[in-house]
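Need a sequence for this fold. Nothing fancy.
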């Protein structure tokens, strides 16, 4: 568990947690809320490090407790996340309660972390409330969510809510480039997700890499008329056309819209905002027309939600865009 990005992007949260410990103002349950990619889980483990570090300069990162936490192997930290059905079930809270009812092999503070508490079933939420009433003074809990409004009020009222700021795009891009990803690819990944860890997974996904090249080739065909965009799609997009996962189709539409937006940024002389830095944007097209094209593309993102024939849908989209 690496805290470097957390320390850089959520300085206010880190300061609040540090001060709570220094001033002895800790509470039993924290609710970390914020958009995807805002380092909430990293902050939960950072908080556990604050509580469990064996040295005065907490967290030191060097003691046995800190090393165990970084490796995700601390025996007094318990992690719960939505299961295969996408929900946190009552049985998972029962298991958590059972763990805390047992005598720990090690004395000291125990911490539980529940990811996406908004996805808990009503039964699981009620069981959690009962569990919270019975926890000891050496037990701390961190709940995380991207949808604060979906959490029942009784859980919110028992927690100290801490809000996380969205990570600025330039910071996300820099984090990717620091890890050896080329700048253009880093910019594209920052469009696909604000979650740095998720973006690192995407960077190794061959389907996404091929999709990026497809978008650039279609863009070149649309603007420079050297080849029919539909022909490019059929030649380079066979994997996309046969893809069943709607995530990839949403990404494709997002990247198409991004490339057109890049043309707008170029026309408005805002070149630092451009994502596809290797694309030639010197085209004969008015900004107003480009806005209209973006709107046309984004209409198709709504259609992906339904069981449509994606090949016919993309052909229709490209015909409209290339007019």
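Here you go.
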């Amino acid at each position: 568990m690496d805290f470097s990005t957390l320390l850089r992007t959520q300085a206010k949260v880190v300061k609040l947690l540090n001060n709570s410990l220094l001033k002895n103002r800790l509470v039993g349950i924290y609710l970390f809320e914020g958009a995807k990619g805002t380092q909430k889980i990293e902050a939960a483990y950072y908080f556990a490090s604050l509580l469990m570090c064996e040295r005065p300069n907490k967290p030191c990162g060097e003691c046995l407790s800190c090393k165990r936490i970084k490796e995700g192997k601390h025996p007094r930290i318990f992690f719960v996340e939505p299961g295969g059905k996408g929900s946190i079930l009552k049985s998972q809270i029962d298991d958590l309660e059972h763990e805390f009812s047992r005598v720990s092999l090690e004395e000291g503070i125990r911490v539980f972390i529940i990811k996406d508490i908004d996805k808990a079933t009503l039964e699981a939420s009620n069981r959690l409330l009962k569990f919270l009433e019975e926890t000891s003074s050496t037990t701390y809990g961190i709940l995380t969510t991207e949808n604060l409004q979906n959490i029942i009020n009784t859980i919110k009222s028992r927690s100290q809510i801490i809000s996380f700021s969205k990570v600025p795009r330039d910071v996300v891009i820099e984090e990717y480039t620091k890890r050896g990803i080329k700048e253009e690819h880093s910019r594209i990944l920052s469009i696909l997700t604000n979650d740095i860890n998720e973006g690192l997974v995407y960077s190794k996904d061959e389907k996404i890499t091929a999709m990026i090249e497809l978008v650039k080739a279609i863009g070149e065909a649309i603007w420079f008329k050297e080849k029919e965009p539909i022909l490019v799609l059929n030649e380079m997009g066979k994997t996309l056309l046969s893809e069943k996962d709607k995530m990839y189709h949403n990404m494709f539409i997002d990247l198409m819209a991004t490339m057109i937006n890049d043309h707008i940024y170029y026309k408005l002389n805002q070149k630092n905002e451009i994502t596809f830095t290797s694309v030639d944007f010197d085209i004969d097209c008015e900004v107003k027309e480009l806005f209209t094209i973006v709107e046309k593309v984004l209409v198709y993102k709504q259609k992906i939600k339904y069981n449509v024939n994606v090949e016919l849908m993309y052909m229709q989209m490209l015909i409209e865009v290339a007019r």
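For context: The two ends are 50 Å apart (CA to CA).
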